[in-house]
Amino acid sequence: MQPFLDQYLKDGAAKADTAPVLFYQTGSNRRQRQRDRAAGGAQHGAVSARRRA
User: Fold this and answer.
1) Is 6 helix (H, G, I), strand (E, B) or coil?
2) What mean pLDDT is reported for the chain?
3) Domain that holds residue 24
C-alpha cells in the first residue's frame, strides 16, 4: 500500500508496481494479485463492487 500512496503523494517517488486486481484473502491471511477479475464473477465469500447506471 505504501508504494501506491507514495507514487501519488510524494514528489519524485518511483512508480508503484500494483496489479490491476489486488485482494485480501482472510482465510489464509494474505494479499494476492491478479491480472483481471475472475471470469465467473464473485465467488463464495467474495465481495463484488458493481457500478450503478
Assistant:
1) helix
2) 76
3) 2-34
Task: Report the share of the chain in percent with pLDDT over 90.
Answer: 21
**What is d(CA 7, CA 20) in angstroms, rounded to the nearest whole number?**
16
Q: How open is the CA angle 48-18-31, to the nearest 5 degrees? A: 60
Confidence class for position 49, pLDDT limits 50, 70, 90: low
Helix or strand (DSSP H, E) at 33? strand 30-34
The set of cell numbers assigned to 28 is 489464509
Q: Do the domain assignments include residue 17?
A: yes
Whether 25 maps to a domain, the answer reads yes
Kindly state whether residue 30 falls inside one of the protein's structural domains: yes
